[in-house]
Amino acid sequence: MANSGLDKRTIVAVLLVLALAFSVIVSAALAVPPSDRGASDSARARASQSSGAEKSPAKLCKAERAAPGAQFAEKYGTNANLRNAFGKCVSGKAKEQKPAKR
Predict the structure, then answer these.
(1) Among candidates 16, 20, 39, which has minimal Cα distance to 28?
(2) CA atoms within 13 A of residue 27's CA, in its CB half-sphere
(3) CA-CA-CA-CA torsion sign (72, 75, 81, 83)
(4) How far is CA 4 from CA 9, 11, 15, 17, in A?
């Protein structure tokens, strides 16, 4: 067999350096919050303006579910164990908020 000039220690050292570099790059990419990636200042301003006036259906349903004395599952659940109540609530509220298209 011909000796290629790379011994086992060199290969292990190179692989360790590559693994370390990869982990640093991935952690740096994940350190930036997703809402700030690629969004312009005007897009962020529009998003903050619209979110203040109208809450998302999921947030409305979460607040309704957390309300004391609320019969949330009985009101929205339709299957035997009433476990689909949150999804039904979000779907219904989204349909209410959606403007009529005609």
Answers:
(1) 20
(2) 6
(3) negative
(4) 13, 12, 17, 20
Calpha distance 22→52 (Å, rounded): 39
Would you give the DSSP letter of residue 69? T
| Of residues 79, 100, 75, the one with CA closest to residue 89 | 75
Task: Tell me the CA end-to-end span of the chain in Å, nearest whole number.
Answer: 77
Tokens, residue 21: 């570099």
The two counts, helices (H) then strands (E), for the chain are 5, 0
pTM: 0.45
> In degrees rounded to 5, what are phi and psi of residue 79?
-90, 180
Each residue of 37-96: pLDDT tens digit?
555 555 655 555 554 457 899 999 999 888 887 788 888 888 888 788 899 999 999 988
